């Protein structure tokens, strides 16, 4: 049986803020400005799955422009130099970092998947039998960015086996 998530939106917001300060805006001049709009558009997304005592997904989604900007900041490059592979690698790493922080707050025994990157809108993502339980929604230099958590409604049948 899956346990109730022990990570709430304020925890997730703190994790996202730490990622922003560490990797995307270390000088503090371009913060993620909250919009609280969970229906904002996206053009690309990445995710990691967590299984074990809690089962769900952590999803990063943004516009393509925000993804290129994130890759440029993450890799210390000029945005004009960023390749599609750089964007994919960065989005996967962002999902992995936030997902790893979420996993660290869960009871022992949880496992984190490899990141999945899809350079298509989040709405094309398929997370069957899940519900969005929280997220951080904002704009970064005018571009939409969100990091959300999805909880599986199906118990993990392998737990305790």
Helices and strands, with pairings:
Blueprint: H1 9-24, E1 33-34, E2 44-51, E3 56-62, H2 64-75, H3 84-104, E4 111-112, E5 116-118, E6 130-140, E7 143-152
Antiparallel strand pairs: 1-6, 2-3, 2-4, 2-5, 3-7, 6-7
Helix pairs in contact: 1-3, 2-3
Description:
With 161 residues, this protein is α+β, with helices and mostly antiparallel strands. The protein has one domain: CheC-like (Chemotaxis protein chec). Helix content is 30%, strand content 27%. It is built from three helices and seven strands. The chain has helices spanning 9-24, 64-75, 84-104; strands spanning 33-34, 44-51, 56-62, 111-112, 116-118, 130-140, 143-152. Strands 1, 2, 3, 4, 5, 6 and 7 form a seven-stranded antiparallel β-sheet that branches. Helix 1 crosses helix 3 and helix 2 (64-75) crosses helix 3. The longest helix is centred in the middle third of the chain and has 21 residues, at 84-104. The model is unreliable at 157-161 (pLDDT under 50).
Task: Name some characteristics of this structure.
7-stranded antiparallel β-sheet, globular, disordered C terminus, 3 helices, about 160 residues, Chemotaxis protein chec, alpha+beta
How would you summarize this macromolecular structure in one to three sentences?
With 161 residues, the protein is α+β, with helices and mostly antiparallel strands. The protein has helices at 9-24, 64-75, 84-104, and strands at residues 33-34, 44-51, 56-62, 111-112, 116-118, 130-140, 143-152.
**Mean of residue pLDDT?**
89
Count every helix, treating DSSP H or I runs of 4 or more residues as helices. Answer: 3
Tell me the overall shape: globular
Major sheet details: 7 strands, antiparallel
Keywords: Chemotaxis
Protein name: Chemotaxis protein CheX
Pfam family, one: CheX
Domain Chemotaxis phosphatase CheX-like: 46-119
């Amino acid at each position: 049986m899956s346990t109730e998530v022990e990570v709430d939106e304020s925890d997730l917001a703190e994790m996202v803020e730490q990622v922003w300060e560490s990797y995307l805006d270390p000088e503090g001049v371009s913060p993620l400005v909250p919009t609280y709009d969970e229906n904002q558009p996206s053009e690309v997304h990445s995710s990691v799955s967590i299984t074990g005592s809690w089962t769900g997904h952590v999803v990063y989604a943004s516009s393509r422009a925000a993804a290129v900007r994130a890759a440029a900041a993450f890799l210390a490059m000029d945005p004009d130099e960023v390749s599609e592979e750089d964007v994919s690698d960065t989005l996967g790493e962002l999902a992995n970092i936030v997902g790893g922080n979420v996993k660290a707050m869960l009871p022992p025994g949880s496992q984190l998947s490899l990141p999945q990157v899809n350079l298509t809108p989040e709405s094309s993502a398929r997370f069957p039998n899940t519900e969005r339980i929280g997220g951080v929604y904002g704009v970064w230099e005018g571009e939409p960015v969100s990091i959300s958590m999805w909880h599986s409604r199906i118990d993990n049948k392998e737990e305790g086996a």
